Amino acid sequence: MDPLDAVPEAVVVLDDARTVRRLNDRAGALLGLSDDAVGAALGDVLTLVDESGTVCSDPVPARSTAQRVAEQLYRVRLADGRERPVSMAGRWNDDGVVLTFRSSGRREAVDAARSDLVATVSHEIRSPLTSVKGFTRTMLLKWDRYSDEQKLTFLETINEDADRVTRLLKELLDVSRIDANRVQLAKMAVDVAALATGVATKAEQRPDGDGRDLQVTVADGVPGRIMADKDKLEQVLTNLVNNALRYAPDSVIRIEVAPWGEGGIAITVADDGPGIAPDQQKAIFRKFGRGRETRRAGTGLGLYITRGLARAHGGDVALESVPGEGATFTVTLPAGAMPGV
Fold first, then answer.
1. For the chain, which residues score pLDDT lower than 70?
2. Which of 91, 141, 159, 281 sits 20 to 30 Å CA-CA off 265?
3. From 82, 91, 114, 123, active-site residue
């Protein structure tokens, strides 16, 4: 067995003339190289494309005193035309250079997620801050030109936009804690039926809930209380109700609390709205995920946080939906509802 085959990275050994002298099995799997590549020039058997889309016939820099080839990102073009993201690094020796290649697909995914985060946060913060700045500057420069009623309207708008920024920052903190598995829960006995009724009442008092029909039912056999974090459980239920108000504007919203498992509770939030396409039902639970047909304002973090908080309680959130026939979200909470209870 060639010792290079024990190396987890793809390894290609070149001489000073950039001719392939050795390669390992991983080079075949990752780079599409076969034993026929030995004895050929690297540029003839391996097509690497840089970030600008330019084919690099000779990606190896000239020998330097550092004896290292700095890591670089490429896409290797395979025989079937597909391109695979890889990172390449290397080290010079007396006979040539040893190159190692690794798949960089995960890195690209992480970088893309970070870019999405920056873009989303920038957009969501810029809009309310622009409004706050505009109304504040207007009042400072033209205070005497406006009536008290107009000034009150300006201040209410500023207050609402400040609340919007605060909500976004809270969501980002929730996401960071969920990602790090560091959600802290304050244990207490919670009457889930009363909590559901309170969430529905608050929703009806908001502008987007005014005149909406929110129905709360409690099935027989529901435990009086379960151990949970009341605030976070309310956040879970509020997120689901807010989604129903936003995406099913003409629908009755039904909230049901029912027994589940041995001493657990299931809470369903159902609507008769447009529903969610099957290929989007997993995507909406991801960070920044939204259905294609419902691209409305928001960060796309609500359902990600909802599922994260439910799982922190030892439960989960499930979705059932048929396009055109509404959507039903079900939160299941076990009897203990919290690890260690």
1. 1, 65-66, 105-121, 123-124, 289-299, 336-341
2. 281
3. 123
- What pLDDT score does 341 carry? 39
315 in Cβ contact with 261 (< 8 Å)? no
CB 192 within 8 A of CB 268: no
List all residues 6 or more positions away from 10 whose beta carbon is below 8 Å from its beta carbon. Answer: 23, 24, 26, 27, 29, 30, 31, 86, 100, 101, 102
Q: Which pLDDT belongs to residue 106?
A: 64
What amino acid occupies position 70?
A: A
Annotated catalytic, 123?
yes
**H or E element: which one contains 130?**
helix 105-141
Alpha helices in 185-301 (DSSP H): 192-205, 230-247
Token pair in block for residue 147: 């009536």
C-alpha angle with apex 231: 229 to 237, nearest 5 degrees? 100
Residues pairing with 83 in the sheet: 77
Report the C-alpha gap between 150 and 138 in whole angstroms: 11
Supply the pLDDT for residue 215. 93
Residue 253 φ then ψ, to 5° = -110, 125
CA distance linking residue 111 with residue 85, whole number of Å: 13
* Pairwise CA distance, residues 76 & 101, whole Å: 10
C-alpha radius of gyration, the chain, whole number: 28
Tell me how far apart the alpha carbons of residues 285 and 331 are, in angstroms, rounded to a whole number: 13
Q: Output DSSP code: residue 261.
A: T
pTM, two decimal places:
0.61
